[in-house]
Design a protein that fits this description.
The structure is a single chain. By secondary structure, this protein is of the alpha+beta class. It contains four helices and nine strands; from the N terminus they run ββαβααββαββββ. Strands 4-9-8-6 form a four-stranded mixed beta sheet. The termini are far apart. The model has no long low-confidence stretch (mean pLDDT 86).
Length: 148
Amino acid sequence: MKIILTNEVSGLGAAGDVVEVRDGYARNYLVPRGFAIRWTKGGEKDVEQIRRARKIREIATIEQANEVKGRLEGLRVGLTVRAGDQGRLFGSVTPADIADAIKASGGPDVDKRRIELGSPIKSLGAHQVSVRLHADVDAKVDVEVAAA
């Protein structure tokens, strides 16, 4: 099935790309979650709009990405959340929470869709998350989760 990606999907492509995937993957995962729309001749107009919006948000050069990487890796991000007696969180820390905490710590604006969590953060303590700044540049950010 031919689809148009509306968000970046790891291993598949970036927003605005037209890709061919298996029918079940598109019908059951990508389209219901809003990561893609079905390709149509009229949808080609949407591709240009999605690509223009992506260019505004993305970091254009590797030099800019390395500069932002330096700022992020030198940053200590603290996040306070509600937790139980055993150090387990009520819920989990989301990429949006981490993006807000980076901004509050004096870091650059980071798109929440660029933050990759290896597994959900559901406990107190120090965690490391990856921020995909450019196709070739990833930054590792240390996040300290503390009880409120």
